[in-house]
Amino acid sequence: MPEPRSPRRRLDPDARRAEIVAAATRVFARTPYDMVTIADIARESGASRSLILHYFEDKPGVFTAATEVFAERAAQYIRTDRAGGPQAMITANIDAALGFAAAHRETVLALVPPGPSGPGLQHLIDELRDRVVDRMLINNVGTTDVPVQVRFALRAYTGLFSVALGDWLRTGEPSREQVVDFLTRTLMSLVRDVVAQQTA
């Protein structure tokens, strides 16, 4: 006698949306953005194409949602309560960020240069950079109310960080310790030479 078929799962809209986002993250992690289709995400998530479009409108919308969720998870690794002074805190936070990136290598590589581009996605990237800069400012000067030159310098640092992170994840060189040292010294230089001058 055949086994009875399992009933179709009923999820509330938030749970279904989260399930689609998780599936989309897996798809974007293993397939270049330009090659991903809504049908790919539908197959991975078990949701219909029309339901995905209902929640997210289009592929950039799905990618945006997946990136935002992933960025929130990554941000949890950056802490302001680390002991030992500013340089020790920066070093520990950068090392934690690299550890998180290494543990989620394919997903991170889908986001860093030369990842997807376009007006809608650039807006998302800009928002994410602003969040990172705000966290850096709170860590180092205790406020986000700073001159435009300071924010400009720290936003530029996030670009350098992304390129360095992508190169390291792709090649494994230089060593993690060397990458942490380089990124720490670069940020410390900005803090001393730009942030300190503009906030004095």
Summarize the SSE layout with pairings.
Layout: H1 13-30, H2 38-45, H3 49-56, H4 59-75, H5 86-103, H6 105-109, H7 119-141, H8 148-171, H9 176-199
Helix pairs in contact: 1-2, 1-4, 3-4, 4-7, 5-9, 7-8, 8-9
Order of helices and strands: HHHHHHHHH
Could you report the average pLDDT, rounded to the nearest whole number? 83
Distance between the termini: 80 Å
How many whole angstroms does the radius of gyration measure? 20 Å
Q: Please mark out the parts with pLDDT under 50 across 5 or more consecutive residues, or reply none.
A: 1-8
Give a count of the beta strands, DSSP E runs of length 2 or more: 0
| Helical coverage, percent range | over 70%
Features:
200 residues, mainly alpha, elongated, disordered N terminus
